[in-house]
Amino acid sequence: MATLLIVDDEPQVRKLLETLLQYEGYHTLSVGSGEEALALVAEQAPDLILLDIMMPGMDGFEVANQLKGNPATANIPIIMLSALSEPSARLSGLQTGAEEFISKPVERVELWLRVRNLLRLKTYGDQLKSHSLMLEQQLRERGTETATMNVHDLARLDLQNALRQAVKANEFSLHYQPKLDLGSGQVAGLEALLRWDRPGYGEVSPAVFVPILESLGLIITVGRWVIDQVCRQIAIWQGSAVGALEVSVNVSGHQLMEGDLISDIARILADTGVAPQWLEVELTESSLMENTQHTISSLQRLRDMGVKIAIDDFGTGYSSLAYLRRFPLDTLKIDIAFIREVTSNPQDAAIARTIIELAHSLNLRAVAEGVETAAQLAFLKEAGCDQIQGYLFSPPLPVAALAQWFVGKRGA
Ligand code: C2E
Ligand code: MG
Ligand code: MG
What we know:
There is one protein chain. Helices cover about 50% and strands about 20% of the residues. With about 400 residues, the chain is of the alpha/beta class. Strands 6-7-9-10-11-12-13-14 form an eight-stranded mixed β-barrel, surrounded by four helices. Strands 2-1-3-4-5 form a five-stranded parallel sheet, sandwiched between helices. Bound molecules: ligand C2E and magnesium ion (MG) (2 copies). One magnesium ion binds next to strand 11.
């Protein structure tokens, strides 16, 4: 369980943050001044710090400066809290090395999303660090000079090399997760999810390796392989007892911006003889919000071909409604963050309902992901959600296991 340190001179603010964060399952510590914060961190490093800027005595800027200036504490993520909304306060906060900035009064969903995202990044950084310490040790044993290189560079380099090798040796595979149509009770389609079994390490999460493939420019090659593999699989299923199924493929913004996504898809559909209506591409809300003009025209071409388009992780990317109307879309996928507590948290429930209504008012289908309980399913059904996806219905499965799963479904 992650430990979060709250630093704020106002007791009511501390109490509020403690309540919100404990409710999300975090362990909290709190202090009322910058001096106390530094003393506590020196004794027991937290996983993340929420730091008020305006405090009597040592202010938040000074605390952040000291923590970021010390190698022992520089890696602890800091979220600055401020009632000041001026951009200059935000800038000074970021200049001290703070990772994030939240304005008071603190909004619950924003708080937990920022905390969650930073903790994920930190976990990844810690993994890299322990891995790089090991590498450093190995290098020292071999007596090379390279040990003086920045340890993070080394670990990243190692992962990058492993991924280059993975692309060459094709160490990737795909799992497919069925989606349930709430109207008919039938399988609505599948989502293809990339898997990498790193030799000697085991499964690495696509949330970790996809961004690295993107930074190496390799996502275009791997993404093309995914689409090719998926279309071949659709054709195989169409010729078998499984039958025709719609499959969604996650596509990186890089494929749209730098690759030749549209002609790749056209060629692959022609090669495999799959009709475009069986393919859907999923783009995250945040990737759609970059370079919107180019994105809209590319998506329009895909849509004209007959390929479907979904926005993934919807609700976290702050897209404007005006833009949303201009995108040619078929599906909105509600981010898992709003589904997790949809039955216990009225705010999440309201957001989920709003997204479903928004989807319907734009003539789109609403899909909820991460559905794990019957109570979540009942809520979504009542709220008029069109499709659900999650461990409750089925986890992502390799092709062979999926065939078995279909047999079980028919028998049921
Ligand atoms: P996503 O597209 O939002 O995929 C949904 C994620 O939720 C998947 O994680 C899936 O395994 C997980 N999931 C499904 N049901 C449940 C549930 O009931 N509870 C919970 N807690 N999780 C559930 P996964 O497979 O680790 O993928 C993570 C992300 O990596 C994906 O998020 C997607 O953004 C990216 N990704 C996966 N495959 C590809 C790909 O081929 N290309 C690109 N560009 N990105 C991919
Ligand atoms: Mg997806
Ligand atoms: Mg998603």
